[in-house]
Specification:
single chain, eleven-stranded mixed sheet, seven-stranded antiparallel sheet, 11 helices, 20 strands, protein-L-isoaspartate (D-aspartate) O-methyltransferase activity, EC 2.1.1.77, Protein-L-isoaspartate O-methyltransferase, S-adenosyl-L-methionine
Length: 426
C-alpha cells in the first residue's frame, strides 16, 4: 500500500502552492486522512488535488462527490472558523469537509451537517467515526431548511451549489455570523462569503468554483443534461430551454475564427465566463471526464475538460483557449454556428474593453425580498440594473446587456442579488 502520510503531504503542498491558504486550514488538511472518507478509492487517487465523484443518478449525472481539496481549503479560508464556533454544513458528502470543520472548531465547537440523501448520511457518519470525529452530528433533511435544533450557528457553509439564500439559514445564523455558499449567478457558480451590513448581506470575498446543485424542492432552474455516457459529456444551461441535437452538430463540420483578443485560459474561464453568463442568455458550458468530444477544449481545472460557448437549436460555438500570447479561437458547429460565433466574439471584445472584470474584483450584495412569482429561475425581464445606475444600453430587450462597472441585478425567489465591480468604476 502506498504511504498515505507522504501522499497527504504532497497534496497539502500542492494546495498551499496555489496560494491563499493559511496555517489553520493547512493544519486541518494535515490532520484529517482523506482516504478514510474515500474507502473505494486507492490512496494515490484520494490524495490528488481533484474532485472524486462518489455517486451518479440513473442518467449518469454526478449527484455526490468529495470536492477538490483546493476549493475546499479556499472556502474554509472564506468561512473563517474559529475554536468554539457552532457550524452548520449543507451537504454532507463523504463527511471529509465536516471533519475539517470539526478540527478548525476544536473541542469546544460543534459541527452539524445536513444532507437530503439517507444513504450518504449513513456513510458520512461511518467515515467520521472511523476517522475519529464521532462528535460531528450528521442529520438527514433538506439543507435549504437548515437544522433549527442546533441553532444559532456562528458559521453556515454550503458544499452544494445553491440558487438563493434561504430564509432558514438567515434565521438560524447568530448575530455577526457568516455564510459561505457556491451561489448561482445566472448559471455560473462563485463561492461567496457573506456578512450582514447596512441592512443587507454583502460579500467579503468570492472564489470561482463548481459544485453539484442542491436537490429537492428548493433546487434552482439550472440544467445539467447528459449527452454521452462514454465520455461523460454534459451540457450545462442556466435554465431549461431547447438546445437542439448537440452531439449531431459536434460531430459535423467545424470552422475556426480567430478571436483577436489575447487572454490566458484562466482569465477566460474565470472573468469571461462570468461576463458571458451575465450578458448572454444562450450561453452554455460543455464538460467531459474522458477526452473525446472536447479534446481541443480547455484543460480541466477541476479534473475534467470544459468548453464555454453559446448554443441554440441548429448551432453551437465554443471558445478554445490557447496559452498567451496566442489569442483564443472560436469553433463554430452546425448551420447556425457562424452567427453564434460572431456573437461570442462580440462579447469577448466587450469584456476586454470593460477592463476584463474577474471574480477577484466582484462584489455581491444580497437584499431581502425577491420575486414572489411561482417557479424559481430568473427570466429575461428579471435581469437589469440596480436603482440609480443609469439607463440600460440599447439591446434586444432581454435585460442581459449591462456594463460590468455598473452592476447587474438578479432577482431570486427570496432575495435580490446585485453584482458589481467597484474598482471598475474608479
Amino acid at each position: 500500500m502506498a504511504d498515505w502520510h507522504a501522499l497527504r503531504e504532497e497534496m497539502v503542498a500542492r494546495v498551499r502552492g496555489r496560494g491563499g491558504i493559511g496555517e489553520e486550514v493547512t493544519g486541518a488538511l494535515r490532520a484529517v486522512p482523506r482516504h478514510l472518507f474515500l474507502p473505494e478509492v486507492p490512496p494515490g487517487a484520494a490524495y490528488r488535488d481533484e474532485a472524486v465523484v462518489t455517486r451518479r443518478d440513473a442518467e449518469g449525472r454526478p449527484v455526490s462527490s468529495s470536492s477538490q481539496p483546493t476549493i475546499m481549503a479556499l472556502m474554509l479560508e472564506q468561512l473563517g472558523v474559529e475554536p468554539g464556533h457552532r457550524v452548520l454544513e449543507i451537504g454532507a458528502g463523504t463527511g471529509y469537509n465536516a471533519a475539517l470543520l470539526a478540527h478548525l472548531a476544536g473541542p469546544g465547537g460543534r459541527v452539524t451537517s445536513v444532507d437530503i440523501d439517507p444513504g450518504l448520511v449513513g456513510r458520512a457518519r461511518g467515515h467520521l467515526a472511523e476517522a475519529g470525529f464521532p462528535g460531528v452530528e450528521v442529520v438527514c433533511g433538506d439543507g435549504a431548511e437548515g437544522f433549527a435544533p442546533g441553532a444559532p450557528y456562528d458559521r453556515v457553509i454550503a458544499t452544494v451549489g445553491v440558487w438563493d439564500l434561504f430564509p432558514a439559514w438567515l434565521e438560524q445564523l447568530a448575530p455577526g455570523g457568516r455564510i459561505v455558499a457556491p451561489m448561482d449567478l445566472n448559471g455560473v457558480q462563485r463561492s461567496v462569503a457573506l456578512e450582514w451590513a447596512d441592512g443587507h448581506w454583502t460579500s467579503r470575498s468570492a472564489v470561482a468554483c463548481g459544485f453539484m446543485r442542491l436537490r429537492g424542492p428548493f433546487a434552482g432552474p439550472e440544467v445539467l443534461r447528459p449527452l454521452d455516457r462514454d465520455s461523460e459529456l454534459m451540457l450545462s444551461l442556466p435554465r431549461a430551454r431547447e438546445a437542439g441535437d448537440v452531439l449531431a452538430v459536434l460531430g459535423g463540420p467545424v470552422s475556426e475564427l480567430p478571436a483577436g483578443v489575447a487572454a490566458d485560459p484562466a482569465a477566460l474561464a474565470d472573468g469571461f465566463g462570468l461576463w458571458l453568463a451575465a450578458h448572454e442568455p444562450r450561453w452554455c458550458l460543455l464538460s467531459e471526464s474522458r477526452p473525446r468530444w472536447l479534446a481541443a477544449g480547455a484543460p480541466g481545472r477541476w479534473g475534467f475538460t470544459t468548453a464555454l460557448g453559446i448554443v441554440e437549436d441548429g448551432g453551437l460555438c465554443l471558445l478554445r483557449p490557447r496559452e498567451a500570447p496566442a489569442p483564443p479561437v472560436v469553433r463554430a458547429f452546425g448551420p447556425g454556428g457562424a452567427g453564434l460565433a460572431a456573437d461570442l466574439l462580440a462579447h469577448l471584445r466587450a469584456w476586454d474593453a470593460a477592463g476584463r472584470p474577474s471574480t477577484s474584483g466582484l462584489r455581491v450584495d444580497v437584499h431581502p425580498g425577491g420575486d414572489p412569482r411561482p417557479g424559481d429561475g430568473a427570466r429575461p425581464g428579471d435581469l437589469g440594473r440596480p436603482p440609480g445606475m443609469g439607463v440600460p444600453p440599447a439591446g434586444d430587450g432581454g435585460g442581459f446587456g449591462t456594463a460590468a462597472g455598473d452592476g447587474l441585478v438578479i432577482r431570486k425567489r427570496h432575495t435580490t442579488f446585485v453584482l458589481s465591480w467597484p474598482a471598475a468604476r474608479g
